[in-house]
Specification:
By secondary structure, the protein is mostly helical. The chain has helices at 10-26, 48-78, 82-108, 117-133, 136-160, 166-188, 196-215. The model is unreliable at 1-6 (pLDDT under 50).
Length: 216
């Protein structure tokens, strides 16, 4: 989505969001602006069980990045403050790198992304748009809480990776660093802390998505 998005009307931004949804959910790996952190690392031999498990974890993370693209796009489409809109778009641009890296790792593991990525995108975009309509402080608070929860699940995945799989580890560690930066950006910009029931609902929804994406 181009930077000039902030000059467009709400309808223009919504249509642009639909276009981005189709490209993100159906196209191959997007071009990353940064080098893959695992690019210089050699592949190691994995047994079938390890390969399947790592592929499941990376499929979850790939789906998470599809959802992140959708959330940020929906929030940017409905944000009222141009500065907030630009911050959302900058975060979305950086998440493209994560999406590309996860898809590249899936290819290396002879695995496919989730077959439900189109549905994940649509649901996440709608949530982002609603959050944006509630006001920039709530939208930023939603982003902040999302990133905190992503950091927690990345920690869990790092714990589950075999010690020998340094390629996946390098990708997830860089992703975690970026997610922390996005959370700090949202907090510094005035994001509100979400009510505990909302946080719990977000966590339950994410756990459902992870359970499905791990296998499909």
């Amino acid at each position: 989505m181009p930077r000039e998005l902030r000059q467009y009307s709400l309808i223009d931004r919504l249509l642009s969001g639909v276009d981005q949804a189709l490209r993100t959910a159906s196209a191959g790996a997007p071009l990353a602006s940064r080098s893959n952190p695992s690019a210089e690392m050699a592949d190691v031999e994995l047994n079938d069980e390890q390969q399947q498990h790592i592929a499941g974890l990376m499929r979850i993370n790939h789906t998470g990045e599809v959802c992140a693209q959708a959330l940020y796009s929906g929030q940017a489409a409905t944000a009222r403050n141009p500065a907030v809109r630009d911050s959302m778009q900058q975060a979305a641009d950086e998440e493209i790198d994560h999406l590309a890296w996860c898809e590249q790792r899936l290819q290396e593991l002879d695995a496919n992304p989730s077959i439900f990525n189109g549905l994940w995108y649509a649901g996440s975009w709608s949530l982002g748009a609603v959050a944006g309509l509630l006001g920039d402080e709530w939208s930023l608070g939603f982003l902040r809480e999302t990133e905190h929860q992503v950091e927690a699940h990345l920690d869990d995945h790092l714990d589950q990776l075999p010690e020998t799989d340094q390629k996946s580890r390098a990708i997830l560690e860089q992703m975690k660093t970026d997610e922390a930066k996005h959370a700090a950006m949202a907090e510094d910009a005035g994001g509100r802390e979400l009510p505990r029931p909302v946080q719990d609902l977000m966590r339950m929804s994410a756990n459902f998505m992870k359970a499905v994406a791990y296998r499909l």
